Amino acid sequence: MDTNASLRRIAAFEDRFARVQATGIVEFGWGHALLQHDYPASWHHNRVIVTGAVDPAVVIAAADKVLGDNGHAHRLVNFTDGPRGAAAEEAFAAAGYEAERIVTMIHSGELPARVRGPVEALTFDELRPSMLEDWKADFPGDSEQSHAQLADRVRLYSRGADVTFLGVRDASGEVVARGELCVSEGLAQFENIITRPEHRGMGYARGLVTEALHRARGAGCDLSFLTAEATGWPREWYRRMGYRDAYEVHYFQRTP
Predict the structure, then answer these.
(1) What is the Cα–Cα distance from 36 to 57, expressed in whole angstroms?
(2) Averaged pLDDT, 56-80
(3) What is the mean pLDDT of residues 28-45?
(4) What InterPro entries does this protein's entry cite (predicted)?
């Protein structure tokens, strides 16, 4: 596999995928801001993306201007270049931002063996109640409207890819593990892989990832990737599933 070509394909997909979901885009010479007026609670859909060389102070001021003018109290800035993001950490920390590093990981080698199990494709309507419960658990102080927006925003994904929701149900029919597979032009991204704490250790995540990889291959994809927190334990687990680090990006977030 040509790694540089793969990275260019992923970058092109991520840029197109993000832009097609936006209701507004503000272009800068060094990047752009994405706005999604229908889902203001989704910070990921309302953020500033830095793609070129720029003084961090300029970015911070731009984030205040464009996000503030559109009614957002949060600030979220994404540097797509790892070294530039690392160099900006001090300035963003001084401005009250918290930093997070995200690693893109590409699957390499043989596919893990597909096993018979409880993973199935679900409709969004089947998945939505579980998503709402998970968001309520993660952000109990947020409004029901915010929880609904965080769940419903995944409807936007179909604007830029073919989407399959994979999940595992318990005996009562409630979804207790899930993930989202997006396929476009021979490329597959599997994200938001979640297993409820009380159901961990039962192989559900492995089943989800394995099923996603096989479905991607069956759809003609020759490149499968996902993202993970640089300092989180899933990164090492994904390595055991055959994923390898490709590149790192930086996010800076300021909470209202």
Answers:
(1) 24
(2) 98
(3) 98
(4) Acyl_CoA_acyltransferase, GNAT_dom
Contact 207, 166 (CB under 8 A): no
pLDDT in tens, 218-230: 999 999 999 999 9
Smallest CA-to-CA distance from 121 within 211, 256, 248 is with: 211
Instruction: Look at phi and psi of residue 88 and say left if phi exceeds 0, alpha if psi is from -120 to 50, else beta.
Output: alpha
pTM: 0.95
Burial 34-60 (b: 16+ CB within 10 A, else e): bbbeebbbbbebbbbbbbeebebeebb
Distances (CA, A) of 202 to 62, 128, 139, 195: 46, 23, 26, 10
Tokens of 45: 């859909």
What's the one-letter identity of residue 6?
Answer: S
Residue listed under structure tokens 């990889």: 213
* Whole-angstrom distance, CA of residue 103 vs CA of residue 65: 29
The C-alpha atoms of residue 212 and residue 189 are separated, in whole angstroms, by: 9
Q: In this structure, what token pair is assigned to residue 50? A: 């830095």
For all residues of the chain together, what is the average pLDDT?
96
Judge whether 160 and 16 are in contact, CB under 8 Å: yes
DSSP code for 216: H
Q: Are 100 and 253 in contact (CB under 8 A)?
A: yes
Statement: residue 121 has pLDDT above 90: yes
